[in-house]
User: What shape does this take?
Amino acid sequence: MPGERPARHDWAYLGADWAEHLRSPLNPEVLRLTTEWQQHGRPFTVVRRDMPDLHDELRLGLTLPDRRHLALHVARPAVVRVLPPPTVAEARATAPATWQPALEDVIALGTVLDLTVGVFGSLAWQLRTGVTFLRPLSDVDLLFAPARWSDVERLLFGLEAVSRRHSVVRLDGEVLLPDGGAVSWRELALEPEIIWVTGPRGASPRTLKDLRALFPAES
Assistant: This one.
């Protein structure tokens, strides 16, 4: 697959010969489920790599509607198409009516902060596959990539306000960092001294000062 390397939370579509590019074997049941999923033209999500993985390898995840989680380890040529995470504006049409006011407020917050608001998790799976994934207690997993630390602070303040107004749905998700890491916005809002950051190859503890230093200085 030519082009830029797929990032975590991207959506990957496998080609018909995908099994020829497996880097780790699958048991017969996982192979069967994966083959059926691919033959329906449905995508997989890109997940973080393991430390020993080579540059031309990808880790993919498949969450089935019954909440089973399957994992694939493939070479990049197995992937023939990649899509970015859908935006909340794109995915809201598949969400329950009771969620719409909260999603409208999230979209408005993104507009005020000039941020594209992405979505992953069950809402994204339902949009990308046309299969029912959402349940009454499903969260909405959001993605934000602020360019400045002041935008992070405004984002957290805004998300907490939206969450207080709309208790019918839980807003979860991540703030994406300039170095490729990601952190739970809810955890970040607590301003802990140490916070766990999910990176391209694993998770590690960082200080809040470390996270601030990743963003450009502001006058």
